[in-house]
Structure formats: structure tokens, C-alpha cells
Design brief:
It is built from 4 helices and 3 strands; from the N terminus they run H-E-H-E-H-E-H. With 98 residues, the chain is of the alpha/beta class. A 3-stranded parallel β-sheet has the order 1-2-3, sandwiched between helices. Helix 1 packs parallel to helix 2.
Amino acid sequence: GYHVVTASSGEEALTYYSRYGHEIDLVIVDMVMPKMDGAECFRKLKEIDPNVRAILSTGYAMSDRVQEVLNSGMKGFVQKPYSLDQLSAAVHRVIAGA
């Protein structure tokens, strides 16, 4: 029941969000993306919208860097590989405000 938009890089995501952020309920940010990492992308999303709701997705083990990004205001986290049920539950929690 969700309308999903994909971006091929952090820069593309920022361009899209700057135009249509008012229509977006949730962003899923990968820790590793072309042209900028997930931490930088999320920081710039927060500059556009301090209330952006985002989930961090990564295949990396929980590290200081991952924890730093989570502590910067991420609303959720999914560790790769994840199942559709795990992703769906994380998305639901964030959108529902839990």
C-alpha cells in the first residue's frame, strides 16, 4: 500500500526530496551509496527538513559510525540482509510514530 520512489544516489535523493519532501512520509537511507554516504545524505536531508523521518539500512556490523548516524536522528534501523517482513515492520513503526 505504499508508493515507493527510488534514487540512484544520495545526490538524486536530495534533489527529489528538496522538491517533493512535503509528500514523503519516510526515507530509507543506505549507509553506502554512490557519490555520498548515508550519513552525509541524512545530514543534508535534515538541513532540508529537520523533521525528516528516516530508516538506516546497512550490511555493516554495528560500529561507532553506524551508531553515530543512528544517534543523529534516524527513526529506525534494518540490518542487511533483511526480510520483507522485517522491513515492513520497521517502516510501519516509523510511520505510526512508535
